[in-house]
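Students often ask what a 'structure token' actually looks like in practice. Rather than answer in the abstract, let us consider Alpha-amylase, a protein of 513 residues. Its sequence is given first.
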Amino acid sequence: MKILLLLLAAAGLCWGQYNPNTVPKRTSIVHLFEWRWQDIAEECERYLAPNGFGGVQVSPPNENIVITNPNRPWWERYQPISYKICTRSGNEEQFKDMVKRCNNVGVRIYVDAVVNHMCGAAGGSGTHSTCGSYFNTGTEDFPAVPYSGWDFNDGKCHTGSGEIENYGDIYQVRDCRLSSLLDLALEKDYVRSTIAEYMNRLIDIGVAGFRIDAAKHMWPGDIKAFLDKLHNLNTQWFSEGTKPFIYQEVIDLGTEPIKGSEYFGNGRVTEFKYGAKLGTVLRKWDGEKMAYLKNWGEGWGFMPSDRALVFVDNHDNQRGHGAGGASILTFWDARLYKMAVGFMLAHPYGFTRVMSSFRWPRYFQNGKDVNDWYGPPSNADGSTKAVTINADTTCGNDWVCEHRWRQIRNMVIFRNVVDGEPFSNWWDNGSNQVAFGRGNKGFIIFNNDNWNMSVDVQTGLPAGTYCDVISGQKENNKCTGKQVVVSGDGKANFQINTDAEDPFIAIHVDAKL
Ligand code: QV4
Ligand code: CA
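Now compare that with the structural description of the same chain:
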């Protein structure tokens, strides 16, 4: 078996879909949720490339329905009308310009592919779509693709409402409508080919891979069928024979019959347990403590590391959509959030995605955010606002830009520096003070207890003075924040007060004086 795997790996054929196709030593991607293509192009050049980000997950680029009640919700983009590249983020020309400019600075683009369905059944008929293409949900006509009634599941779904009523029934979940979205008949070769044609257009433009939206609602074999039709990546930026990176959105929290593992043959899978559990631990819910993170990863019942796409929050669960949301940490809980993202980026498990959000007027009524639908910052005519950059490098216009927060950006760099190094030198106090290293390249320590910490621990790092990359960083051979002295035996003293602005410290060999 080992030998067979080695042979296949050497042939470089079957396994490409697990590899993010980032340039070497760029180990994370960022989801620039709802950003315009022109802003992403700029961000690649001015920020992402210089700071070692590997790529960007972009919002769905294909034409979607325009919803005015509520007023232009973010989720209208998950209701396709055609596969024309034409949305509030920009047109095809702008998309191509973005892909080219990002690739030219070594930052990859991953497309959110919404191919399980078209728009909602109550969409109506007309040209209220982002490119003005006509559609009719009554007759299930989408002439701009074209799809017609024959291309939808309907007959295959056996629930009274035509909706998914029970997630315990794997047939309903795949063949019925997800919140009324017209469900495509993916067993048809015409539908598979049409989807593959759309994805191939994107591949030829130069994208590096895809998030497969609502993968749980498609049969793994149907996904395989359209993936098998995909081109290799554009050789202007990728080596001959490179397959697109695939990560499938399957929410498997362990409570339903559909398992993420059913999708491993197609590519990676989103590990939703990751953010839900990490949030629970950092919030100290359910008797959890950071000391239990010693065997984080597969030890917690997560999928194999080389199949996992991990994140602290995503665009759904940061606002109560999807599943497993209560414990999720987001930018709204900034202090714990930075710790969670720091922990994720320091830990070797999984391929990591950082979230970058927009602010909305969050307002809870009876425990539910009634403004969870709010779309991106926009002008009166509905167009999306530009991402402006303030003098202090943060973003304006209500773009949160978590990826630009010093602590998060510096941990993205940390992960690149420690890439390939083993998890090492775990230490904990049996409670919420923990630390671990990555071989002899980096070390991180947390105090999430409500008492001060002062400890001498083994870092595994060479002797010297290091800059903490959480409170500051190394600039002109000086530390702008705290300093840590590692002695000849690899030990260092760390003091973190419980009321510290950020109760964690991280050091690595590229931030050594
Ligand atoms: C509603 C009712 C229906 C009713 C219909 C009548 O729910 O029962 O029949 O009105 O018109 C929106 C609305 C939803 C509305 C639906 C259809 O919220 O109320 O139906 O549109 O008009 C996003 C949002 C959804 C949104 C959808 C389409 O989260 O709220 O639905 O976009 O606009 C499960 C899945 C998982 C999914 C997750 C949210 O297993 O796959 O739910 N996650 C992905 C995306 C997510 C997206 C979709 C899937 C759908 O990450 O952002 O849903 O593409 O866990
Ligand atoms: Ca389906």
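One point worth highlighting: The CA atoms of residues 114 and 213 lie 5 Å apart. Ask yourself how you might have guessed this from the sequence alone, and why that guess would often be unreliable.
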